[in-house]
Amino acid sequence: MTDNKALIAMSGGVDSSVSALLMKNGGFDCAGAMMNLYGGASFDDARAVCEKLEMRFYTFDFSGDFKIKVIEPFVCSYEAGETPNPCIECNRFMKFGRLYEKAVEMGCNYIVTGHYARVEFDERTGRYLLKKALNTAKDQSYVLYFLGQEQLAHIKLPLGGFADKTEVRKIAEENGLLNAHKSESQDICFIPDGDYARFIREYTGKDYPRGSFMLHNEPIGLHNGVISYTIGQRKGLGISYSEPLYVCKKSAIDNTVTLGTSAELFSSEFTLKNFNLIFLPEPPAQPLKVGVRTRYHSEEALALAYFNEDGTVTVRFDKPRRAIAPGQAAVLYDGDIVVGGGTIT
Question: Could you list the residue range(s) of the whole structural domain that residue 213 is in?
Fold first, then answer.
């Protein structure tokens, strides 16, 4: 590896473009790369930015890996009655997996992305820490909770220190980057219309049978297949009742969707599997006071985290929280430091 050689993960958007500019201006030998994950991607903007910055530009076809590592687990998770987050798996296996491997092959010491988060080395503990971005509204540390020490040592996140997105766009504009005011995509790339159930039916070719909506252990109507619902959903149920009803539980085993009132959506604790601990070298013997996010931009809730001998983590809230969804990620924080995260069971 060459100490100053960096591979920039380009998306065609302003964030990765400004990250490339900042690294280039910082004296790094930079090349840009864009991944083809699901077809239909345009490389034009990313290529144009690299040409302007006099950087080499590469494209990598990871569509086969994307199907295996992201799409199929997403489908299987929904079929099992869970609510997955494919963007986390894409970051885990594509950007910081396959692309990271390519960077190593190319002799790059760093991989660079436009994520809003920070990586710092803690001299006291000798560990790399993942921290929230200064721009709390844009913070993306939640989707990076899986990173290990080896990855953190070779990652640069230039935008983590910016307190306002307008600063990033201003830099792009002042430097003549064509995407300075390009809008951001909020959609899952392979489901741009947000219709998960339609995508899953078309992808698998399966007919997911109707089953019973359950209320107080009694059937009160028919649902359109467990893949069509998420925990906390109220709209589109087609059920009339004396008070609003919400999806509280999904069971692929008996093909039921359990409904309940808003009060029945609250939970006092949950368990995490596949937990990745960043903050400490070993799980603490005593419970840890943490802030918890159970969805991407959800408000943090105070809780105690108990690190179990089997590798799972039990999280007990100070106050019950609403709509905890199996399959989603939960990330634990100590102030602005990511303690670690895992998948809700």
Answer: 208-260
